[in-house]
Amino acid sequence: DAGVTQSPTHLIKTRGQHVTLRCSPISGHKSVSWYQQVLGQGPQFIFQYYEKEERGRGNFPDRFSARQFPNYSSELNVNALLLGDSALYLCASSLDLQGRQTQYFGPGTRLLVL
Amino acid sequence: GNSVTQMEGPVTLSEEAFLTINCTYTATGYPSLFWYVQYPGEGLQLLLKATKADDKGSNKGFEATYRKETTSFHLEKGSVQVSDSAVYFCALIILTGGGNKLTFGTGTQLKVEL
């Protein structure tokens, strides 16, 4: 089975622009989470979606938004990009929201804001 | 709140040396604990996990035991290889009304030399 896939792999934007990142979960997984990993740090939680509903939100500004589609894929949108938004954006999927469920990560989208 | 503290890196070892990477946590409930590994330029891969006290997770020669009394989940390997060079992240999940987000440590870089 295919793992978690993300697109694009790399992206270069300028300050003030908007970006959309995409994620397809492992088949059968209904939960998708987004994380931001700044260089040299651990990933920080942005959003979690389950059955198309937002189930958790991290400490990120309203410029960040996301949604989950009926096929459980997801998009992360970031408006009015800042230099500090440059990071690796990771998507993770899991079967459901049980705490012991493993979250499987995609390869990430590397965003550079100039 | 919930947090994970890892020993700072980089950790540099010779091939076949013994590895320990310390991880301690603070949690408001009963977490599940994870070790993820990130190879250069890649996303996160689950290395091992433990979901209750005294459980031992193991994979590819790596082990970690969930110690509730010391709130620790130290990663060990008896004989490291050059191919183990990567960044290792300790993480926890507590299921709350806000979903089951992963909380990560800052990561420990391991360099294994011949």
Fold and architecture overview:
The complex is a heterodimer of chains A (114) and B (114). Chain A contains no helices and 11 strands. With 114 residues, chain A is mainly beta. In chain A, the strands form 2 sheets. In chain A, strands 2, 4, 5, 6, 9, 10 and 11 form a 7-stranded mixed beta sheet that branches. A 4-stranded antiparallel beta sheet of chain A has the order 1-3-8-7, with no helix packed on it. In chain A, a hairpin with a 6-residue loop joins strand 4 and strand 5 (44-50). Chain B is an all-beta fold and 114 residues long. Chain B has strands at 3-6, 11-14, 19-21, 23-26, 32-38, 44-50, 56-59, 62-65, 75-77, 86-93, 102-104, 108-113. In chain B, strands 2, 5, 6, 10, 11 and 12 form a 6-stranded mixed beta sheet that branches. In chain B, a hairpin with a 5-residue loop joins strand 5 and strand 6. Chain B is globular and about 45 Å long. Classes of the chains: A mainly beta (114), B mainly beta (114). The A-B interface holds A 31, 33, 35, 40-45, 48, 50, 55-58, 88, 90, 92, 94, 97-108 and B 4, 31-32, 34, 36, 42-46, 49, 51, 89, 91, 93-96, 98-107.
Q: Would you kindly provide a brief summary of this structure?
A:
The complex is a heterodimer of chains A (114) and B (114). By secondary structure, chain A is mainly β.
